[in-house]
Amino acid sequence: MTEKEILRGCLQEVRDAMLFKLNGLSDADVRMPMVPSGTNLLGLVKHLAGLEYGYLGDTFGRPAPERMSWIPSPDDPYWRDYAARIRRAATAT
């Protein structure tokens, strides 16, 4: 099995697991924060989509043709503040 096949298989397993977790949930359930950071299932789906669409595309030389609406542009004057908020949220207890 090639590394590409392994990566595709792992990504598909994660997609399948997310679909399984989301199956049958209401819109309110998907949006309800379940941890102190405020993360919800919709946020996790957005994170995974952004990872595949943006990061992996850039990494493998296939950049996304457009930026996802929830990911700030590097030209945004608040970009550094956004990154700082993420770091603070990640270290909050």
Distance between the termini: 41 Å
Low-confidence stretches: none
Give me the Rg, rounded: 16 Å
Overall average residue pLDDT: 83
Order of helices and strands: HHHH
Please tell me what the overall shape is: globular
Helix content: 55-70%
Helix segment tally: 4
As for the number of domains, it is 1
- Helix- and strand-based class? mainly alpha
> How many beta-strand runs?
0
Give a quick account of the main beta sheet: strands, pairing sense, barrel closure.
Answer: none
Topology (elements, then pairings):
Layout: H1 3-22, H2 27-31, H3 41-59, H4 79-91
Task: Write up what this structure looks like.
By secondary structure, the protein is mainly alpha-helical. It is built from four helices and no strands. The protein has one domain. The protein is globular, with a radius of gyration of 16 Å. This is DUF664 domain-containing protein. Pfam families: MST.
Quick description:
With 93 residues, the chain is mostly helical. Helices cover 61% and strands 0% of the residues.
Features:
93 residues; mainly alpha; 4 helices; 0% strand
